[in-house]
Amino acid sequence: MLWLDSFMFYLCKSQGYNAMPEITPAQIKRIHTLKNALEMTDTQYRAALEQFHVFSSKQLTEAQAGQFASELENVAVSKGKWVRPYRKYQHLGGRRDMATPKQLRMIEAMWGDVSRAGTNADRAAALKKFLQRFDISTMEDIRWYDVRKIVAALKAMQAGVKGEI
């Protein structure tokens, strides 16, 4: 099946169509970072690319690049040469109509700037109480359309903390 993806990619490119999304610069960087972490020789790297019927990562489609990077990451993790980065709230990504993990981290960081709570537990409790003003019980319940209101309130609070009000 992978050879069919590569064939269709080159067929479309040769005819001037861009039917399959090309690899992104971030994917190229990730692949090469993993290649270096695994200390792969050029020969080993090219052999690994052969499963996709290409000789350069720039010839991969976006989907193929994602698959290749995942395979490299799995090998690197199993060899102890790579640790998957943990990002708070990442498990909440891809939820329909909900705030993204990045937005949740931003709200939490902004709250850290304005909160007067001394401990992390007190800060979390104060954030929960603040969110209840918006009829939201926890960070996980923030919808995408609530983010603007919450950020506006936090910016106003930041301005007050800095003495700009």
Commentary on this structure:
The protein is mainly alpha-helical and 165 residues long. 58% of the residues lie in helices and 0% in strands. α2 (25-37) runs parallel beside α4 (62-78) and α5 packs parallel to α7. It is elongated.
Question: What would a concise description of this structure say?
Answer:
With 165 residues, the protein is an all-alpha fold.
Weakly predicted, low-confidence segments: none
Cα Rg? 23 Å
Secondary structure: number of strands: 0
N-C termini distance: 62 Å
The average pLDDT is 88
Q: Which structural class best describes the helix and strand composition?
A: mainly alpha
Tell me roughly what share of residues is in helical segments: 55-70%
Shape: elongated
The main sheet comes to:
none
